[in-house]
Fold these 3 entries.
Entry 1:
Amino acid sequence: MSRFLLMLCFLLSSATSLYAADQQLANPRTMKFPALNFQIPKAERVLLECGMPVYLLRDTELPIINMTAMVRVGSVYEPAEKSGLSGIVGSVMRSGGAGGLTPEKMDDELEFMASSVESGIGSDMGTVSLTSLKKNFSRTLQIFSDVLLRPEFSEKRLEIARRQTVEGLRRQNDDPKEIAGREINRAIYAGHPLGNIATFDSVRSITRQELVDFHSRYYRLNNMILAVSGDFERTALLKELNQVFRPVKYPATLALANIPQPKELLQGALLYGKKDVNQTVIRMGHLGLTKDSPDIYAVRLLDYILGGSFTSRLTMEIRTNQGLAYSVSSHFDIGRRFTGSFVAETETKAESTGKTINLMKNIIAGLTKEPVSDDELTSARDYMINSFMFGFTTPASIVTQRARLEYYGYPEGYLEQYRDNIAKVTRGDILTAARKYLHPDTFKIVVIGDAAKFDLPLESLGKVRELDLKLKIPKQ
């Protein structure tokens, strides 16, 4: 028995030594892996008899069908005096009943089928989406098409939406982060529809007829794209779609208003909003670029290096080295139809407000003075290339992405060439992009907090314009 125990101990000791040796050889910092081979999934594009493009991707893993309609509409097309109109249209299309169904009956029927139909309108796109069990798809599709093309806009549900929007306006200054986000957007897009916000007067003035007119102007079969994924039979699905979306002769040709690109005013601004809080909210930025810029790939890597990762320059210096903030980041929102924005943001204790603002500006300016390091470029490039595949995790995301590329007019082969274009970016390309798209001296800076507690007077950072955060609620 003792001999057996000795032999067992010897074997365990040998195995431990071999394991330790293997561990020394398997250093994760020096390990090499073969290149990731990932083929981008395809989706079929078909034109319905009415002329509407449809993207299809069949997936039989679950007996579920998903559908999304993308409509060329948005808040940029609403009159400034009616700000909030598109958001209410997008909401009440679904909540206000459609195709002869009252709101209550539609809610009950969808719930009974375990189906979902949702609608909404953003700044430059309207969507109506459907999720249904395969066995209930035909009925859910009919409700979907009614919401999309024949909404009732119940006066009662309109009033509910109007009151909810007004209540949101009443609370708009409760959260310092929401104030800062709203005001930096208004400053960057001053004088452009993207900078408009709803007011008590604009929301209360919205009528049901204005919802009907706005909807009928833009929700046409020749002004939308469909994306469908899930457990369907191709021939049967196309037959059903052609039956539901029959060709229509519209009384007039749709002419989208020509919305100009926002103009960059190369002039900084310092906006201060007083809130009695111990933590200051900081936002700074200006206009950025559009998807049509040849610099978008360099900007994507610049984004990651500056403030888009946990090892970014902003995070490492402001959070890790200085301990001035728990979270700090920056982001280029590359515009698809209109020029996007660059915004850097953080929250810090009031007593370090001035120091943090100056440090953020200096870090950002540093990228315009000399190239990034080889390690920074390699890390950013590897992350962008290897994480690319996570944009295709579900059939719904794949087919929707394909439809979005057409909706926004991306060039043919954009996805297929994306990784190669990222791999081609050099340190010099990033420096050129930084000098072209980062101008810290012209930042619009929004500071929300208590200036009496700041480490530096705001006036030392520039001319201050104080925001009026007192709500002027008109009498009903």
Entry 2:
Amino acid sequence: MLYWLTALSDGGDFFNLFRYITFRAGGAFMTALLFGFLFGKPLINVLRRKQGKGQPIRDDGPEGHLAKAGTPTMGGLLIVGALVTATLMWGRWDNPFIWLVLFVTLAYAAIGFADDYAKVSKQNTKGVPGKLRLGLGIIIAVIAALWASYNHPEALQNQLALPVFKDTLINLGLLYVPFSICVIVGSANAVNLTDGLDGLAIMPAMIAASTLGVIAYAVGRVDFTEYLDVHYVPGTGEILIFTAALFGAGLGFLWYNAPPAAVFMGDTGSLALGGALGAIAVATKHELVLAIVGGLFVVEALSVIIQVLYYKRTGKRVFLMAPIHHHYEKKGWAEPQIVIRFWIISLILAMIGLATLKVR
């Protein structure tokens, strides 16, 4: 919205700053951060008052989690509210990729909100039936995949770009949409599975989003793509506004979610953030890089899949408990120890993902 202030510029004044994505990204970051600080406490008070007993705690989970009973959930409303407000304020409304990531974020947030509401109102951990959640998630991903493909350059439509290999594209043809669905739905659910400890999911999501934001800015500039030998996707640079807002919103939320958490993000936040990461990866043609940058989320999801399949086949467990962060809790690791170490791993993976831009 504020981008239109450039119409008042003669090319050499303050209003000219609004032409620059980096300036507006900084504005989006600060707006989202201030939104979190201003509305965080009032929202938590409302959620605590409305929810009463707060988020139900699983009886079969780690024993230490029982002490968290009464903590309100749906804190993702704070993240999404800050993120959307800042993006709309500082982003260009004529950019299709901004609307793509906002659509996916809000749509998955709505699914998560319905799930959180069902859990709180019924005071059980089941929530919305899994098949319904998955079905709705797939529909959203189909729309997003077609949306992204329509706005990609013709030479990149239905193509899978390989990291590291220069000018290498694989034509997926009709398989492009199913592949993109797997990326978006898989990302949303992987972040959701990671959200099991105070602060565990939000920081890796912020790190991954920041990395993808840098990638989006690079592939959206023809001079950068020529230097880096990556594929040029016009318009994706504007996604940096969204990811900067996400980082600011994440910090605002983390202020209240750091151990001991005053509020949980719930599925409202985790599904929204995961869906957003998947949508950005599809928009920028860096789907495979997301598997590196978001490697922590991949490991969390794989630990659940391996545990379930192995148990069904043998009746035994590979991990003491899945997802894998609970395995380390069962082994006696303190919660802050797990969270900080997983943050470090996420940062390392982000640096590796960024390196793929130049290693060709």
Entry 3:
Amino acid sequence: MIQIKVVCVGNLKEKFWKDGVDEYLKRLSKFCKITIVELAEQNKYQDIEKIKEMEGKEILNNLQGKCYLLDIHGKELSSEDFAKEIASAALESSTLTFIIGGSYGVSAQVKEKVPNKISFGRITLPHNLARLVLVEQIYRCFMIQSGSTYHK
């Protein structure tokens, strides 16, 4: 069974975000082992580059397998193409890691280390919503691969 790791800077504070993500995590348990790793926001620093550097170190410590960075400038994929990408990546690695950076983005080191960048469009999403969209899209990938009517 493929392992999926979602590395996020920050945590979900509101119950409705947690409930939404938890629902998809429950659904995904039939298809993969998925874990969410929440990294602390480095808001004790004033300097944005220092914040990105400190958060980046933690992100880099959590990379495993084939990695994808959610990036507004990344490659936009349809749900069908995302499903193909996930299926192809699963043949290369037993673990896929998705990264959602902090509110200031990620460090240059993270961008350099993670060449696979994907985007859910040119809009900026709050990190809580990005996490929910990501886990839903991962679930949708498995539904597409299984031929389910979930994806119409």
